[in-house]
Amino acid sequence: MNLQEEKDLENTVGVSARRFEESPFIERQDTSRMVRGVYAGRFFAVYNGEDPIQKYWTLRRKALMFDVPEKPIEISGPDAVPFLEKIFSRKIETMVEGRGYYAIACTDQGGIFMDGVIFKLDENRYRYVQADGPFETWLLAHSSSFKVKISDPYSRVLQIQGPSSIDIMKVASNGEINDDMKYFRSGFFDIGGQRLYVSRTGFTNELGFEIYCDKDSTDHIRLWDHLMASGEPFGMEVSSTRAMTIRRIEGGILGNITDIDTSMTPFGAGLGQFVDLGKGNFIGREALLTKDKKPLLFGLTCETETPASGSIIISNGDNVGHITAGVPSPTLGLGIGYARFLEPKNWPGSPVSICLPDKTVHPAKVVDLPFFDPEKKIVRGVDKSVP
Length: 387
Known about the structure:
By secondary structure, the chain is of the alpha+beta class. It has helices spanning 52-61, 80-87, 135-141, 165-172, 220-231, 242-250, 285-289; strands at residues 35-39, 42-47, 64-68, 71-76, 100-106, 112-122, 125-130, 149-151, 157-161, 186-191, 194-199, 208-212, 237-238, 297-302, 312-315, 318-329, 334-341, 351-355, 361-367. The chain folds into 2 domains: 1-293, Gyrase A, domain 2; 294-369, Elongation Factor Tu (Ef-tu), domain 3.
């Protein structure tokens, strides 16, 4: 879901299928042209023969459904709250049921180990929807002094994203889900005769929803068919995650391990607002107290070429950073990417150059993230204009 550039489609290897979880929806989307990736120990489609730019515009103008590999982990028990306060850098105690929080888990050195969204299902029961990485093992390793249960519900997630998603979910839920459901809110709803957890979140910065299945109680194929039937009148299509990758980079959504990792603090990633140093002790707090609070991660635009991962950023003849991921932006009409700098500086507005892996050099400009819609009017449903 993170690193998906054109070159990746040719840079593939064979792996044992037994090592990774197959999607319960595979029979509805498998084709001979599918190229799959592995994320959080799960297979997912990074390409399925489609035109990613056509899918991108369907996402921006109508809606797409994605079978995504993000992995929900359940944390429950009488010590769930103090345990989660130790794990995450933002305050969990004040969460109410039906509310989701973006939350970061740090290492003892203050680096980002994991990011994702946590939901409070009910008293002393939470689900954290993790990004890529071995987070369940991390939780187990830190749980010995707490009365908590860490479990994998084997929940597969479907995302319906795009401006038509509210209308689609109204039909799919027989009116239970409507415009009253705000951004980052969640709850249990009847979706085609199955009771499922749904959140108004996503990985595109378009208006959208995520639907969380349960391995033992969900009829996955019936759910897929019901959602497709609900979305058909609104032009919804199925897509691999290539269109999602373009939109998530435009929207400034960072990918764990790709754009952020244990060598970068939340401050360096521009995520300092999700660190509450005053809430009490949590893993990494002592280190973060002394870390530089200036960001190292910005956007970069290039009119002559698409930035590629690993491209070197040059300023005044010096190597000052690199590109973590790059895509063409159909909305902006130029190449964009994430620029990770070696040193903090007031980089936005600075003219720089990028040296691509093929050794060609192109002029570029550093910009703030996200690349457009900084007030998140699109994802909140305030801006309903169609590009």
